[in-house]
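Possible race condition, two jobs.
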Amino acid sequence: MKTVIAGGTGFLGSGLTTSLRADGHDVVLLTRRPRKPGDVAWNPLSPAGDWASIIDGADAVINLAGESLAAGRWTAPRKAAILESRVAATRAIVAATAKARRPPAVLVNASAVGVYGTHGSAALTERSPSGSDFLASVCMAWEAQALGAAGMTRVVLLRTGLVLDRSGGALPRLALPFRLFAGGRAGSGEQYWSWIHRDDWIRIVRWAIDTADITGPLNLTAPHPVTNATFAQTLGRVLHRPALAPAPAFALRLVLGEMADALILNGQRVLPAKATLHGFEFRYPDLEPALRAIYGGPDETPPS
């Protein structure tokens, strides 16, 4: 199978690339900075570039490209870059798909659980309404661009939660205060964090590629989201550290600005309803075994 991945050198894309190549798949990475065989230079602002021909005849295209949400305070220029990087990359891929003599069988496009906005403890599925804050508006614009390819190919929208792995993403930063004996809940701790082990994230993306019935939004979260307070207590227990030093909401807002509410202090209780309905089986449905697998403690071996 020939798979083209935009944004494939990042935390999620690199793991997915490794998994696909380990099984003998031909993976081509679209990247601004080609470094290895299989990397192809691309500029999403140049839809007519040489990279566009790579999509012609591909079995699957996976678009994970976009500016990091956590790279800095959400100033007006940063917010514009976050939105435009996602919309422009997706628009370019859809345009290349439209020109392909043989369009890919599936476009798998990144999104995030932030699309739902803030709903307290209400359970959210792929049928739940979208939110109205900045992150929700970014996700909606992102998804709308991807759905422009729906008449040409199957489109899957990856509504990803907090992806856990010790090699990258948010977990190393979340774990650092605990390692320094300064970890605890954030704000009230009542907000839900919808998480997923990176191995399950990779598995569910590959499953979505192979499962023709999967179209539209797909929640990439474990079946058992937890409150931030429970997350902190569990992480502390796995790391053998106390979880007694809460981070006050006002301090987080002072340091992070608007990003504090969007990414830390507010949350969503998102359930993988579509994956569960279609028979996907999680290796790590519960948080503590997932964290112990990551950090090498008891229960590190996933169930067969």
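Job #2 (started ~2 s after job #1):
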Amino acid sequence: MATITVETGTGSASSNSYISEADFTTYATDRGITLTGDTDVLLIQAMDYIEAQSFKGNKYTDAQALQWPRSSVYIDGYVIDVDEIPTLLKDALCEVAIGVDAGNNPLLTEDRATKKEKVGDIEVEYMDGARNSTYLKAAESKLSKLLKAGSGGISARVIRG
């Protein structure tokens, strides 16, 4: 069983999560989701994915254990204080952990994509170019404003006036 140590914006050298187990449970419960796994394990597995992202700005100190807090980060034109852990990041962590609990860990090794499969009278054929894993859209939408352009599975939209 893992012990969760929450990063509060101090740049701790021993933190391993952006939220507590209680906050994660509340997030899920507020959305009508019943968690089945150990919340500490789900958070650690979700953190593996979150920490692999290419975030905007720079780590605030070289001694901190996690990618946040960060400096030089702007969201919607406003600077994020260097001692702030954005709510979008915390929510994205919850969404990834919920996905992991549902069997959709974005870091698991993927099998080959199935083109056609027939078992008895049941036949499945996936569209060409279809993902061979579940895309955690709720998590990715929350992360999109925090990631560098062109990183991860996030795409940018250009609007020309």
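Confidence is low (pLDDT under 50) at residues 153-161.
Logs attached separately.
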